[in-house]
Amino acid sequence: MTSTPILKIPRLTIIALALFALMGWGFAYLYFSNTRGHLDFQHHAVGRDFINVWMASRLTLQGHVVDVFSPARYLAAAHAQFDQRLPLHFWSYPPTALFTTLPFGAFDYLTAYGLWTVASLIVLLAAARTYVTNRTDLCLLMASPAVATNLVMGQNGCLTAALLFCGLSAFDSRPRRAGFWFGLLTFKPQLGLLIPVAVLASPRRWTMLAMAGAVGLGLVALSIAVFGVASWQAFFRDTAPMQSTMMTRGVGPMQWMSPSAFMSGRVLNLPLAGVIALQAPFTAVGVWLAWRAYRSSAEPALKSAQLMVATFLASPQSFNYDLIPLAAAALVLARGPRSLVDSFAAVLIWIVPIAVIPLNFQGTPIAPCLIGLAAWRLEKRISEPRTSLT
Prior knowledge:
Oligomer: single chain
Low-confidence stretches: 1-6
Structural class: mainly alpha
Helix content: 55-70%
Number of domains: 1
Number of helices: 19
Largest sheet: none
Radius of gyration: 20 Å
């Protein structure tokens, strides 16, 4: 039996990815070089959204966990404990997410942010090693604009990408283990939106879905035991409506940072019905592509890459700090037949984390189309004869 050829990333594509990676870290350098103590040049906290990690954990450790889920009390506490100049911030996650933040409230803000950054990179590197076996790809992924963006924003994108990588790397060989990792991802369900589709499309993967459900429910039960049922009551009463309001009416940076079709419609000033109508076909296509991928006999790397790309097509709620999985998918797409279109599509989704802000700010929200181009090229590859990518 003849072996299938091993595909490599063309050298010029590697150079392009590396140059844009340098651009992403260059932006990060400019950001940090313009900070003033614990505030940046716009009077946000250094590390932007890390203030939410720090304040949520701090309030919880102080015995005021319910205040985490009340936007008004939360912001008042942030002004009192951090800085009166801090703009609007609110905690947008369910109580289960507090398990990821608790240790950081025990430190002063800048120390906690430094520890969070180091821990994020370590977790991502450990998980990426289970998913990316090629050293060049691993170095590129860790240096990607998506990682730089996540660290500047002080967000949990490294953690959510790590959980996704661990789950996808075990998808075929250890379904229960994959289900465990996917269950931990339930604190940010929009990033696991298409996992049930992939499981249902794959033969004999029911144990994965059962394990994910059990872990998710176990986290809910543990959060009730640790933080009390009042935390969940406050989440549904105050936090969830605030999140919905921001998604449908919020303006400014949260619009510019989102690559979703939903937010593209808002950037274009469509009415809510038009925004939903714009998102609907992207969601339908994302579901269909994930189903097609996992019904096929394609390489696991291609299927998981398509799942990650299709997720950002399908989800109405995603932001540039979530896009590390897109960077991983870009490396899979680039590692293929020497197609100029594939390399071009890979580079485009590679730069979405840093390109989406100026694109949306200028009123040209084309990020969903860039992601859609990559999904189309992956679909073409999935439907071709099987070729080894490793």
